[in-house]
């Protein structure tokens, strides 16, 4: 049965914001989510067992235990959640995953922040834009995050999550940042954290290490990035709408 299993009933959250980190273009969400979990030493709060997710057992170097490939981490002091995934979500299974996760967000008064890379030839600083569902446009205005400068569409499982939030009239924010199409992009993840997640959540995020460790991060994520390229229909991405006309 599809469900989210909470492991830590001792963690008290009020109306948390959640940063989504599904693999996508430039692995922007994945890198940003992993950085938050590491920087804040977040607690493994819940495991996601939604229908359609790959049934794989994830293990870590130096540890004998295994865990679900899709997990939710919590920081009680910051009232913050992070959705972390070690595997791509197949578009064929996205409907089941989206229904399952969105239902849990709704039941637990979670406001999700969805992250997506926009393939682009970047300048010195990648451009960042925000979109919203429900009444979350006010959050973007308060954070000083501008609307997109062109028509576009967020695809993949993240796009499906935003679509479902809009359908249910739930508050959610989508952050779109210019990103490298082929390779892991720590700089794009840094910008989305610094100029997007930080002002939205009011949580100060250290991001210098993302630049300092850019080569190391890129090497560590390169295998997953290659998998995403080979299965591009599974990859979350923002694309100019003109490409579909």
Any descriptors?
Proteasome_assmbl_chaperone_2, PSMG2_sf, 245 residues, Proteasome assembly chaperone family protein, globular, alpha/beta, 12 strands, single chain, Rossmann fold
Task: Give a description of the structure.
34% of the residues lie in helices and 26% in strands. With 245 residues, it is α/β, with parallel strands linked by helices. The chain has one domain (3-244): PAC-like subunit (Rossmann fold, 3-Layer(aba) Sandwich), CATH 3.40.50.10900. The strands form 3 sheets. Strands 1-3-6-7-2-8-11-9 form an 8-stranded mixed beta sheet, with helices on both faces. Strands 4-5 form a two-stranded antiparallel ribbon. Strands 10-12 form a two-stranded antiparallel ribbon. A hairpin with a 6-residue loop joins strand 4 and strand 5.
Short description:
Residues 214-245 are annotated as: Disordered. With 245 residues, the chain is of the alpha/beta class. The protein has one domain (3-244): PAC-like subunit (Rossmann fold).
């Amino acid at each position: 049965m599809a469900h989210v299993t909470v492991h830590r009933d001792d963690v008290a959250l009020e109306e948390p914001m959640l940063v989504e980190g599904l693999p996508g273009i430039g692995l922007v969400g994945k890198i940003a989510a992993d950085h938050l979990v590491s920087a804040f030493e977040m607690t493994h709060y819940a495991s996601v067992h939604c229908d359609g997710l790959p049934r794989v057992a994830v293990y870590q170097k130096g540890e004998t235990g295994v865990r679900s490939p899709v997990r939710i981490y919590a920081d009680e002091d910051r009232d913050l959640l992070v959705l972390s995934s070690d595997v791509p979500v197949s578009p064929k299974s996205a409907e089941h995953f989206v229904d399952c996760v969105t239902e849990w967000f709704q039941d637990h008064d979670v406001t999700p922040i969805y992250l997506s890379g926009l393939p682009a030839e970047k300048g010195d600083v990648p451009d960042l834009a925000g979109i919203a569902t429900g009444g979350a446009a006010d959050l973007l205005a308060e954070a000083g995050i501008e609307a997109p400068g062109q028509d576009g569409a967020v695809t993949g499982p993240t796009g499906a999550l935003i679509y479902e939030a809009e359908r249910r009239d739930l508050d959610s924010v989508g952050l779109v940042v210019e990103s490298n199409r082929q390779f892991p992009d720590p700089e794009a993840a840094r910008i989305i954290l610094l100029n997007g997640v930080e002002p939205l959540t009011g949580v100060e995020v250290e991001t210098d290490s993302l630049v300092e460790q850019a080569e190391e991060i890129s090497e560590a994520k390169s295998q997953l990035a290659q998998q995403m390229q080979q299965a591009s229909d599974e990859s979350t991405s923002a694309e100019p709408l003109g490409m579909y006309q």
